[in-house]
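Data availability (excerpt). The following record was deposited with the supplementary files.
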Amino acid sequence: MVGILIFPEVEVLDFCGPFEVFSVAPLDEERRRDEPAPYEVVLIAEGQGTVIATGGLKVVPDHDLVAAPSLDVLIVPGGWGTRREMSNDRLLSWIARQARRGTTMASVCTGSLLLGKAGLLDGKRATTHWRALEDMRAWFPTVTIVEDEHIVQDGNLITSAGIAAGIDLALRMVAAHHGDTVARATARYMEYPFPETNRRRV
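Predicted structure:
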């Protein structure tokens, strides 16, 4: 199961991009309309109410932190809301618990800052949106900042560059779970260029 965290002022494409990839990934392209994607994707928020994302998009989560199911993957998106959530001890503790349970932890854009505040980046290689690289360097001095890679994996921790990088992150995860053919079919269905290299684009 893939959980995607949402919070006030979360960047829309940060969470919608991975949601789209995981929800349309086909195991059999010819039976796309007949067989569900191999992923169950749920949105998780701190509370049960509607979350207002960047730009005013209103989103209803599937679960709050208390009722969240056991996850195989947790996607932590970014956005201006991360600045406030970096001081949210309840949310940060929940993120840290997911990592201790062996969940694959992945961030999009400045979602990496929440992973850092939860103590998950210490001694790791990581990246984030280009505008937040210096903040990451200042706030998390033990992290090896990677500026030239689009997606950075260090064990069970995956961080990615800004906003649209979440699509590439999810495609890479689909490729790791189900093979390159399935990931490429997903990208083609979305009419999105499959990421042939991991070179940072900005």
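Summary of structural features: The CA atoms of residues 149 and 200 lie 5 Å apart.
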